[in-house]
Fold these 4 entries.
Entry 1:
Amino acid sequence: MSEMKELRDIFTEYMRLNYISALLGWDQQVNMMGYKNVAGRSEQIALITKLIHKRLVSEKTGKIIKKAEKLNDLNDIDAAMLREAKRAYDQEIKLPEELVVEIQKTAALAQQTWQKARKNNDFKSFIPLLEKTVELQREKAQKLETHPDLYSTLIDLYEPGATYDWIANIFNPIKPKLINFVKKLNSASNKPDDSILNKEYDPDKQYELSYEILNKLNYDFEQGRQDRSTHPFTTSLGSLDVRITTRTTEPFPACITGTIHECGHALYEMGIMKDLHDTILCTGTSMGIHESQSRMWENVVGRSKEFWMYWYPTFQKYFPENLKDYPMEEFHRAINYVHPSFIRVEADEVTYGLHIILRFEIEKDLIDGNIQVKDLPEIWNSNFEELLGIIPPNDTEGVLQDVHWGSGYIGYFPTYFLGNLYCAQIYNKALEKMPNLSDDYKKGEFSNLLNYLRENIHQYGSIYRANDLIQRVSGEDLNSAYFMEYLEKKYYPIYGL
Ligand code: CO
């Protein structure tokens, strides 16, 4: 099958060019933080993006895809390779260049405007560009037409195969359960006290400690590194070069949980089987599955009591001024304090889903034209009160808080919460196989879980779509019941309920 070989080669070059582009981006975010002007770098990235696009939409690529589509009896890997090649090709060829340029230009302007608007609590100034962004995203969805409805087409960009209806069927029933659960925890008489986390913790020591943890979690420093950046992220610069970043911001231990989160993303990419290296399948299969991995390490492992039984003495050594006489149990309760708050990225894992459901419902209405951009603050605040029982004091802490919409990312938000749900279902399966898994953590032993994830998730890269993957792992479709079970089992003891 020479067609498949040719296809594979074309997309290996495509991947390598993307790695080069990612390197430019990584370098900008890690090494150019203090630079006055990064316009030169932005131009370079724009140029390479253009070159990648041109190569991808070449006649040759189109022909090879057509030929490969006629082949019968493709094995799982080849079939997936063709599927992903076609997907990448379609996404580029269906969009007219003027539209792509317009989207890029608008995003650059909208981001600047959004930053100012957020700083000055001035939603009005953001309205024209956000309106334009929504219009451009609608146009994009019309051109791509992956699904009959526009919002599903946008969701599909980040969570291939997922639709609005499928997600709504999962989010709708869990919504009231989460609202009630938060209320129940809130009414407990003995709530955690998280004031210990607001003391001062030396940033350099936090950073040093984050390396100790990365080592124990089996992050491979021979195929990656950790640096500091304004926002933590993971990026693959090659199939054997998966880098992460963290930051030492408050409250404690955000640096550590951030490191663990990105480590989870990195372990996924580092665990992809050799056969897939440098192919278009050498990447996580969806944002939701990716997020399930990062959140499993961050929340399920990294906020478990067993994890802290092992790590707390080390933390006490690093920060004796704060922790020497502070009991581990109380610290563990502090980092698992659940309470409605305004900012999504600071939300605990229980209220987090409600922040996402809010955005999911608003995005759907925006794209369908059922609501107007100018009415967003009002809609945001009243829906927020319904979900979380509090009203943001201003738009900075409300509708203006996220970077996504201004950057043209509409349809991305739901993947975050899907991540929590996938995570609980996968972890439940791991527990069936290894009921005493958390005893490992008490000993600082994390390889049994990692091996389970490698075997069942990581090695496959993008061979299986999220839906198929969860079926293979658990024998059923995504089911939010596992997440609620996980929450109840974890939080009732913490809250003495
Ligand atoms: Co993440």
Entry 2:
Amino acid sequence: MNTDLDELYQSVVLDHSKRPRNFGELADAVQVHGDNPSCGDEIDLSVKFGPEGAVEDVKFKGMGCAISQASASLMTMKLKGKSETDAREMLRAFHDLVTTEVAEPPRMLGDLRLLQGVRRFPQRVKCAMLAWRAFEQALARNAGGDSVSTETDA
Ligand code: ZN
């Protein structure tokens, strides 16, 4: 097997789970709580959207297994500063990465590509997707929200 990649995967996952990036909470942001009862993972995601729906800032707090926390940490690094279109594209690409056979993972996923291996472990897919599901909810809430929107459901 690919030992180098396995080692890289482990070191990146461990690094991010031990020292999560963008850890914390944002004021005036969309807050989403997500949990994955089958593993005991939890996450509180704060996303600050710009007027055009871009991800201006994103932070998370959470606890649980290394995969769930590393995925959240890597996700926040990648999403920060992205336009809504790019953020949605990344969400879709990451979901594909961990659920289907992807020969060449898109480069924009960066180190997130190292999580590709969780595909072989269905229980782990939920861990890896936890933060992304929370982000998906944040997107939906920002689009629909509690406020009156004139946009159509596209
Ligand atoms: Zn987990």
Entry 3:
Amino acid sequence: MSKKVIDETSKFLSYVLRHEPQAIGLELDTEGWGDIDALISGAARDGRQLSRELIAQVVDSNDKKRFSLSADGQRIRAVQGHSNKDVHLQLEARQPPAILYHGTATRFMESINEKGLIPGSRHHVHLSQDLETASAVGQRYGKVVILQIAAQDMQAQGFTFYQAENGVWLTEQVPVSFIKPL
Ligand code: HQG
């Protein structure tokens, strides 16, 4: 399958599995799992040709491991990034490294300096362990600023951290006092 088809399918799967399953009449359970046959038939009604092979290829080749398959191979979910209100991943709290990074754009800094980091439409604020990822995330929105987050200090103050299956760190919000531009 061409890279173009794989990339387009990955974007489509992100859209339905994170945000709008109802757009193709797909039901997700609270853990975000959707039935692959229902996904394929829902997508077909929307004029999009998927197959189990294509889906498996997207899951395997995905640079950020955005999706996972159930052990029986019948279901698929996005591992982070959700905004859908019916999905509530039961993630285990984990101890974060001392510092985590968040890449954002300069134009958001005035508001971030006032309110801290907030999740926006997603369920969590997304943080990464490495600068490269943070930089790539920030670039999507404009001129990049990398923020250092004092994650262990936050945890000591009672904030909870989670790690998605693909390594992305998640927390509900980051108050201004724990944020320092790199
Ligand atoms: C910003 C991608 C103003 C925040 C990435 C970000 C990630 C504020 C934007 C995942 C703010 C939200 C998530 C405040 C935060 N005022 N702006 N108080 N607080 N923001 O896309 O973190 O490639 O929802 O800095 O890799 O950029 O799609 O979050 O710029 O893991 O798999 O509001 O999405 O993954 O944007 O990215 P997003 P994000 P995928």
Entry 4:
Amino acid sequence: MKEMVLNKFTEIYGDADGAGVYFAPGRVNMIGEHTDYNGGHVFPCALTIGTYAAVKKRTDRKLRFYSMNFESLGIVESSLDDLTPSDKAGWTNYPKGVMWAFAGRGMKMDCGLDIVLNGNIPNGSGLSSSASLEVLTGYYLKDLYGFEVTNVDLAKIGQYSENNFNGMNCGIMDQFASAMGKKDHAIFLDTADLSYQYAPLVLDGAKIVVTNSNVKHSLVNSEYNVRRSECEKALEELQTVVKINGLGDLTEEEFEAHKSAIKDEVRVKRAKHAVYENQRTIRAVEALKKNDLKLFGELMNASHVSLRDDYQVSCEEIDVLVEEAWKVDGVIGSRITGGGFGGCTVSIVKDDAVEQFKEKVGAAYKERVGKTADFYVVEIGDGPRKM
Ligand code: GLA
């Protein structure tokens, strides 16, 4: 990959001498969905797939972007004096947003860049290609301009730019997972205060299989922002009867005792998911520590049901993938992963059942939905780095 982006750099810009190559990973979330903007826990891990960039400083203030994933767009040109979001900037709004967020914190680039990007995260799969691009950008800015930021700062800056430059009110999970990834470990992160622990996720006799539905419904961003405001409203209502900072502060029992403060049935369901999913995540990590993979899998399944019925962020295609996965012998757990409305499922599958899993789920998906699913047996990798 390193050579590939460098060769492209030479082809596009003429001279790759002095260009650095950087990488930041995508992520998959094992459990803890739609809890990260509710002060709850998440349990994601960084993948070995992600986004690569060859980057070289210029002597003027120009920015030139080229993506090997969108070659038909050619070179997209901009300037350090034009760090504002625009439709025509397309994907370059992500790196530009990060540059803008750095500048807002007093870390101003004193010259422009030539950049070639290449990512191997399937497009629209919900494995956080945008977060990996944000963390990647922060990482090369830090390296090239000597900005003093930690990897946690890179996660925060990535999220800030996505919220305020790209209009997606995401939580911090994706950027945190990309920036803080550790090989063979998942990250148990408390989004209330960003305290975290690494938990080994080398599954004895089983694999993590990500299944791509190859659908991405257009409601992703709009519905995401709606869910977020429903939770905020439910929190305000609950705060009239109980002292909490986020839905993640409540146990299931406390929620049941106070839920009548929420004056709308839909909001009760949304808040219920946030509370129960957070507790499930805490329990799942405990189960994993005790090597109780069976319980971990059951909690993954319960997470799916809650996301489908109470949070309502699943869709027909994803439900088919999960239902069919549950039917296969050797499947320990399976659920939707990421923001929802398409994208991927994550399943834990016993080693000797993986081939059967792909065949059975793939065939049933084709028959029931008429589409082809893709399967990736994923590996958990490290965070961002210079190659
Ligand atoms: C998206 C967001 C994350 C998180 C998940 C749902 O991936 O970017 O912050 O909220 O959805 O868990």
